[in-house]
From TrEMBL:
This is MPN domain-containing protein. The keyword Protein biosynthesis applies. It comes from Gambusia affinis (Western mosquitofish). Residues 1-73 form the MPN domain. The keyword Hydrolase does not apply. PANTHER family: EUKARYOTIC TRANSLATION INITIATION FACTOR 3 -RELATED. Keywords: Cytoplasm, Initiation factor, Protein biosynthesis. Pfam families: eIF3h_C, JAB.
Amino acid sequence: MEMMRSLRHVNIDHLHVGWYQSTYYGSFVSRALLDSQFSYQHAIEESVVLIYDPIKTAQGSLSLKAYRLTPKLMEICKEKDFTPEGLKKASVGFENMFEEVPIVIKNSHLINVLLWELEDKSTVSDKHELLNLSSRSDISS
């Protein structure tokens, strides 16, 4: 909060709408996450938490999801009633604790052109040629 006050004081345009957490294989639910997201969502209604999985991303597809706490879970967090009876009374289970917010990632046209040119310049044989030890002139025998 102090950082946002400082940014506002020097007239920097900012829009803080949440935070992020990295995770491995999608296991991200913890009491700390619930408490943090509740604090953010209580202060900024449209707040989200971004969950990033570097292992899944390294396997070839970007693993980035945005979540918000459901209204039912927000009520439980306000009352701090995380007992099994409290969760059962509110009909909250693992499957309805979070609501997923769709993410749309867009590149500028210049980035799209750059990526296209990089892909066009790199051929499969060039990539494998870097691994061929017999073609390396800087390796001495």
